[in-house]
Specification:
The structure holds 3 protein chains of 3 kinds. By secondary structure, chain A is an all-alpha fold. In chain A, 74% of the residues lie in helices and 1% in strands. Chain A has 15 helices and 2 strands. Chain A has helices at 2-14, 16-19, 22-42, 60-67, 69-101, 107-114, 116-119, 122-132, 139-146, 161-186, 191-199, 203-230, 235-240, 252-262, 266-296; strands spanning 45-46, 55-56. In chain A, strands 1-2 form a two-stranded antiparallel sheet. In chain A, a hairpin with an 8-residue loop joins β1 (45-46) and β2. The radius of gyration of chain A is 24 Å and the shape is globular. By secondary structure, chain B is an alpha/beta fold. Chain B is built from 20 helices and 12 strands. Chain B has helices spanning 2-24, 45-50, 54-61, 72-84, 100-105, 113-117, 133-138, 161-166, 175-185, 208-217, 234-250, 260-268, 282-285, 327-340, 343-351, 359-363, 365-370, 374-386, 398-413, 418-432; strands at residues 36-42, 64-70, 91-94, 140-141, 144-145, 147-160, 189-190, 193-194, 196-199, 272-278, 297-300, 314-321. In chain B, the strands form 3 sheets. In chain B, strands 1, 2, 3, 6, 9, 10, 11 and 12 form an 8-stranded mixed sheet that branches. In chain B, strands 4-5 form a two-stranded antiparallel ribbon. In chain B, strands 7-8 form a two-stranded antiparallel sheet. The two termini of chain B are 37 Å apart. The chains are: A mainly alpha, B alpha/beta, C mainly alpha. The A-B interface holds A 48-51, 134-137, 153-158, 241-242, 244-247, 258, 261-265 and B 73, 77, 80-81, 83-84, 102-103, 105-108, 203-204, 252-257, 262, 265-266, 269, 271, 396-397, 399-400, 403, 406-407, 410-411, 414, 434.
Chain lengths: 297, 435, 275
């Protein structure tokens, strides 16, 4: 009995590279395989949820996508929103990490306050932003006008809605980038800095020629991690604007949600979601390549 | 011939059964004792009203009722996902006129005629004839009764009586006067507050429910005689334009993001001289805990259009029973629906500000004696009388077509080229409509 | 000498200016959230907004008594804990193996799970869970949250394991431990910091999950992000209730983040970032 058990144990032990990741892989696979199959099937069908069986229509959904103005609007909004928010989060994240990299009195407390938004529940804080941004009764416009600045329409105007959502996204997620970059900065080697100081480089030169190249892989890793959620940003846009005014802030992802769960056209919705997936995939593949190149430098 | 005789006879028997039941008066409320049922509900004033009373029903019947309520958008998401997968839903709320065709075609709705006709299941005091005929009709599909109305809705023009008196303005009775009145009040300073003339819903699809009253009143319609979209017709375009201009010129800022909550809160804060929205929101305006204008509001029906038409819509929320539920649970669900819509609860709901679908509630002494807003009652009654039951595009995929309509409303509010937007939407509507 | 002193002073001023600039936006939103919860309905739609008012605890009372919030908080706590523990149980050995044997392909599967649009899971999952009679159970919600928490744990832990010197484990092997034993007795205790970090991140992301919880939860398992939506009703948004509820939801995770911030940075520093 004991020998049989230990035989099994030894068998498992020798195949650690299989048995260690197996449970996680199996569970993840089980969770995602049916939804993937379901969507791959649905995207070739026309189906309103509940109305009969899905009807196979081949590539028609994708033909429709090309003629659908809201798809192109969604792509545009997605690029504008994600481009701006990711760039700003990366920029501010880096700057603030550099700032926190120097210790000063009270820096701990400042850091602790600064990262709160990162942990805060998106739908909850988005609702609070929604009332604060209300152009008629919101506190933000009140404060602006009381210091003599003109009030804004914020999310109530198609011209400013995306910029406003970017602002909220930056508020919420820059702290996460900061934490990652700060960790990266703390693990940088000391030698290049010593050498630079001896050579008499100024702070800007040190940043440009030493810190930035060294930290680049970390920046890209942070960008990739953030992009997974940002390109599919849902909770915040859904809570604050639901894609409005009109469709001015309707990202492709939100549109696919509206088609599937607002209009209940699950066939077409699945096709749209596949497009969203491809966008995220391509972005990540490109970034990964960039990261490999960066780490070679 | 023979079969006709047969059905005649059975009808007679049925009638006899009915009278017999009347004589006995009370059905056996304990007949489904021990059953557990689950209702999905929209977070509607009726839901808020009925939830605390459910314990009474549970005590009386021994049925356990689980009510799950969600805000409307989330409610619809969850409901459809569950119904599609055959989730354990025994009853739920729909808006006939928006949802009935879809749910009926999907086979989710249990016809109620069988329950209503069964004297063992339906107490004689429930009296189906007591419901407003128009609402009972709109809760039917293909001649089958599928729901019981719990909230009879229409839209009314609400205005600030105090301001109208102060500035000596008359209540507008035509659309031209409405615009004129909105213009008059817009920008006026009252108690240090800058007024807006009127507030309306402007957020795309959500705005269609009130916009449709303007559409009909301007002589427009969803579809033409051939069943094609009528958006590009001069009447429809005039309605889009009027609604959009009114909100842009004399409404709160950021009109395209005004959902009901934003619109009503502008009015309740005292910033707007008028609001056109659902009559059921009276209970918000008149609640001093929520509103600064409680007691200051007057109500009237929609002003008449250029050709003298005056056509608001009437809509309702109904309780329905899920086809998929088991027989015993359906029985229990019907007892619940019946109880929730009985005369006593309908009256209590009306007293709590939820417009009931029962004529007896409105006519009751209790209601009339305590009615603090008789003009609201009168306007609601008039609106029920002249109102249109068809308030959504005559298609199955109502949400999608409402969404397309909403884009034109948004374009109109933004002051864009309405004719072009309407033409584009008409094409899209014809392409996307499922009949 | 004097110039460096002035320079130093300027620097200090700069630091404190920066500190203020960083603290104001988060604090402002949070203070406003709490104030919203302490006002009445009328006060919340007042313009100009009221800054000085008699606070009421009525909303917080209503949130607990009428809306059963304690139940939802417990649900969220249970589900986030279950999701975190499961993710660690499954994710730690996987991450270890990926780090040790450079199993990049497994990483790709995990990444794909993370890239799929979450909305596309909803319909099929509901059907599956309904079939398995798991609707409105902690199990279903925990499983759905694994999509987010497990990749997070693995992503973080792979880098931690990579940063660990191999000699330590070899020494244990020589002492006669099996690989399992050495993993549990030697490796994991060394990774305390990393495990804490990934557990916290996993907990936060599960606690905040909205979409899966909306569709898969029922009356028994409703979580707080879904419950906060209950304050939106027909024709009105109960801002006071939302303020109170949001405060209750956000406070626990914020306090959590407040206290473990250091270990997050330290944790990330140790690994995570070394490609």
């Amino acid at each position: 009995m004991t020998t049989a058990l230990s035989a099994v144990a030894r068998y498992v032990d020798r195949r650690q590279r299989f048995f260690f990741p197996a449970p996680a892989v199996a569970v993840l696979f089980l969770i995602i395989v049916l939804p993937i199959a379901f969507n791959l099937y649905l995207m070739f069908t026309k189906w309103t949820v509940g109305l009969g069986e899905p009807r196979f229509i081949g590539w028609d959904n994708f033909v429709e996508i090309f003629g659908d103005e809201r798809v192109w609007n969604g792509v545009k909004v997605m690029i504008y929103f994600s481009g701006a928010s990711l760039a700003l989060e990366l920029f501010f994240g880096l700057m603030i990490a550099l700032y926190f990299n120097r210790t000063f009195r009270g820096s701990e407390a400042v850091q602790a306050i600064y990262i709160i938004p990162f942990a805060a529940t998106p739908v909850a804080v988005a609702l609070i932003w929604r009332i604060m941004l209300n152009p008629e009764i919101g506190v933000i416009n009140y404060l602006l006008t009381s210091i003599g600045l003109p009030p804004g329409l914020w999310v109530a105007s198609p011209d400013t809605v995306i910029a406003t959502l970017v602002m909220v996204d930056v508020w919420k997620w820059t702290p996460m980038i900061t934490l990652i970059v700060l960790a990266g900065l703390k693990s940088l080697p000391h030698d290049p800095y010593e050498a630079a100081r001896i050579d008499g480089c100024n702070a800007l030169q040190i940043f440009w020629y030493i810190t930035l190249p060294l930290i680049r892989p970390v920046l890209i890793a942070a960008l990739m991690l953030r992009s997974l959620d940002n390109l599919k940003e849902f909770d915040m846009i859904y809570t604050i604007t639901q894609g409005g005014p009109g469709i001015a802030s309707e990202t492709l992802y939100l549109y696919s949600y509206n088609v599937s769960f607002g209009f209940f056209k699950a066939g077409y919705g699945s096709a749209l979601m596949v497009i969203v997936f491809l966008v995220v995939l391509v972005f990540n593949v490109l970034m990964n390549r960039l990261r490999r190149d960066a780490s070679l430098v | 011939m023979k079969s006709a005789l047969k059905s005649c006879a059975s009808a007679l028997l049925l009638c006899l059964g009915f009278t017999a039941a009347t004589a006995i008066a009370q059905i056996d409320w304990k007949q489904a004792q021990g059953t557990e049922i689950r209702f999905l509900m929209n977070k509607h004033p009726f839901t808020t009203f009925i939830e605390p009373r459910v314990a009474q029903f549970e005590k009386m019947t021994g049925i356990k009722v689980a009510i799950e309520a969600f805000p409307e958008d989330q409610y619809r998401n969850k409901l459809i996902v569950e119904l599609n997968a055959g989730g354990k839903v025994d009853g739920y709320m729909i808006m006939p006129g928006q949802d009935d065709l879809y749910h009926w075609k999907a086979g989710w709705l249990q016809p109620l005629d069988g329950f209503i006709a069964d004297p063992k299941l339906t107490d004689a005091s429930w009296d189906p004839k007591d419901f407003f005929a128009s609402f009972a009709k709109s809760s039917s599909v293909d001649g089958k009764r599928i729901g019981v109305v719990i909230n009879a809705e229409t839209s009314l023009l609400a205005y600030r009586k105090d301001l109208f008196t102060k500035f000596n303005r008359k209540v507008p009775v035509t659309m031209a006067e409405l615009e004129d009145t909105a213009k008059f009040f817009h920008g006026k300073e009252v108690d240090g507050k800058k007024l807006v003339g009127i507030t309306l819903r402007g957020k795309g699809a959500a705005a269609t429910s009130q916009w449709v009253d303007f559409l009909y009143t301007f002589g427009g319609s969803w579809t033409d005689a051939k069943g094609k979209s009528n958006f590009a017709s001069p009447e429809d375009i005039a309605a889009f334009k009027f609604y959009g201009d009114l909100l842009r010129n004399y409404g709160p800022q950021g009109g395209t993001m005004l959902h009901w909550a934003e619109s009503t809160s502008s009015f309740m804060e005292g910033k707007a001289a008028m609001i056109y929205d659902a009559n059921v929101f009276k209970s918000l305006y008149e609640n001093p805990k929520e509103s600064k204008v409680a007691g200051l509001v007057g109500y009237t029906v929609i002003p008449a259009g250029p050709k003298g038409l005056q056509l608001p819509h009437v809509s309702n929320w109904s309780l329905v029973i899920a086809k998929n539920s088991a027989a015993q649970r359906q029985k229990a669900a019907w007892l619940f629906v019946q109880w929730a819509t009985n005369k006593e609860n309908s009256l209590a709901a009306l007293l709590a500000g939820v417009p009931s679908g029962r004529t007896s509630a409105w006519a009751s002494k209790e209601y009339k004696a305590g009615d603090k807003t008789p003009d609201w009652t009168a306007a609601t009654m008039k609106s029920f009388d002249i109102g249109q039951g068809q308030w959504n595009p005559p298609v199955i995929n109502v949400p999608e077509i409402r969404d397309i309509t909403g884009l034109v409303i948004v374009a109109a509010i933004e002051g864009k080229d309405v004719t072009e937007a309407a033409k584009k939407a008409a094409e899209l509507m014809d392409k996307k409509s499922d009949m | 000498m004097a110039t460096t002193r002035i320079g130093k002073k300027l620097k200090t001023i700069g630091f404190y200016a920066g500190a203020i600039a960083l603290c104001v936006p988060p604090l402002f939103v949070f203070v406003w959230m709490i104030l919203t919860g302490l006002k009445t309905g009328v006060q919340n739609i007042s313009y100009p907004p009221e800054f000085i008012f008699v606070p009421t605890l009525e909303n917080f009372r209503a949130v607990f008594e009428q809306y059963n919030f304690f139940h939802y908080l417990m649900n969220s706590l249970i589900i986030a804990t279950l999701a975190t523990v499961t993710s660690l149980l499954l994710g730690l050995p996987a991450a270890y193996s990926i780090a040790k044997y450079r199993q990049g392909r497994i990483g790709i599967l995990i990444l794909i799970a993370r890239m799929l649009p979450f909305v596309s899971y909803l319909l099929p999952w509901y059907i599956i869970f309904r079939y398995l009679k798991l609707i409105d159970t902690y199990t279903a919600l925990t499983i759905s949250h694994l999509i987010i928490t497990m990749p997070m744990v693995i992503w973080l832990m792979v880098s931690f394991f990579e940063s660990m010197p191999a000699e330590l484990e070899d020494a244990a092997m020589i002492d006669g431990c099996s690989r399992w034993q050495s993993f549990i007795r030697i490796v994991l205790p060394l990774m305390r910091n990393g495990i804490a970090t990934s557990a916290i991140m996993s907990f936060i992301f599960s606690w905040n999950q909205f979409l899966f919880s909306l569709i898969l939860s029922g009356p028994q398992t409703k979580t707080v992000p879904v419950a906060v939506y209950n304050f939106i009703s027909y024709g009105k948004i109960d801002w006071a209730g939302i303020g109170a509820a949001a405060t209750l939801i956000v406070l626990p995770v914020s306090i959590f983040a407040f206290f473990v911030r250091k270990s997050i940075v330290q944790g990330l520093t140790m690994g995570a970032l070394k490609d």
